[in-house]
Design goal:
Elements: E1 5-6, E2 10-14, H1 20-27, H2 30-33, H3 43-53, E3 59-64, E4 71-79, E5 84-91, H4 100-115, E6 120-125, H5 130-138, E7 142-155, E8 161-172, H6 173-178
Parallel strand pairs: 5-6
Antiparallel strand pairs: 1-2, 2-3, 3-4, 4-5, 6-8, 7-8
Helix pairs in contact: 1-3
The structure holds coenzyme A (COA).
């Protein structure tokens, strides 16, 4: 789990209850949550969500190191079975396409494979979410599956489930090593300890 992990432009840290406003700025944006399994959040829900995330080490706040350190988005990194961890990311629209998502996820992946007992990193996304799977591929994850209409999160106007496909992606530690990725093991960075 991440404590403080610094990259050239960013600080990856645990959530704080005070992050609710930055969180609200992007979770209230329909374009940002379009492919997420939830709808837009209200201000009140974001206050509650930020407080909950402050106690949940799987959510990682990604903040600028300059300009007063606003939170530009968040990563999600959660343990699954068999030394496998699931990666997710959500960034505010005005901070997208600036390389922040890549820079933060790259640092997290490098720290996780270097420092922890992480053997396999997986991620899923909707095939229509091009920005998401392009990012996963830039990070070195391989597409392992294309599931057809396996899930739905939202309904249409008639109340019918909107079935959607899922791409499954993964990266093994040995693939990460073979790719010559830079080991990242900062003193305060990542550990698989919980709590
Ligand atoms: C998915 C998501 C995190 C991808 O973020 P992103 O902003 O596209 O990713 P990056 O910040 O790494 O930027 C990627 C693009 O910016 C470009 N870019 C611009 N300036 C850059 C810089 N200084 N450094 C690196 N890349 C830069 C990259 O070349 C890349 O372009 P390309 O895709 O044409 O190659 C973002 O679209 C998002 O938060 N979406 C809403 C939530 C969501 O759907 N999450 C995923 C659910 S599965």
């Amino acid at each position: 789990m991440v404590t403080d992990l610094k990259t050239e432009r960013l600080l990856l840290r645990r959530f704080r209850a005070a992050d609710w406003l930055d969180l609200y700025r992007y979770l209230s944006d329909e374009a940002v949550v379009r492919y997420e399994p939830y709808e837009t959040y209200t201000e009140k829900e974001c206050r509650r969500e930020a407080a909950a995330r402050a106690k949940d080490r799987c959510f990682i706040a990604v903040c600028l190191r300059e300009d007063g350190g606003p939170m530009v988005g968040n990563l999600y990194f959660a343990p699954r079975e068999y030394e496998t961890w699931e990666l997710g990311f959500v960034f505010a629209a005005r901070f997208q396409r600036k390389g922040y998502a890549y820079e933060s996820a790259r640092a997290l992946i490098d720290a996780a494979f270097s420092c922890g007992t992480v053997r396999r990193i997986v991620a899923v996304c909707n095939p229509l979410n091009t920005a998401s799977w392009r990012l996963l591929e830039r990070l070195g994850l391989r597409r392992e599956g294309h599931l057809r209409q396996n899930v739905w999160y939202k309904r249409d106007r008639q109340g019918r489930p909107l079935w959607q496909d899922t791409y499954e992606y993964a990266l093994l530690r040995e693939e990460w090593e073979a790719s010559g990725a830079r080991a990242g093991c900062p003193e305060a960075g990542f550990s698989t300890e919980s709590g």
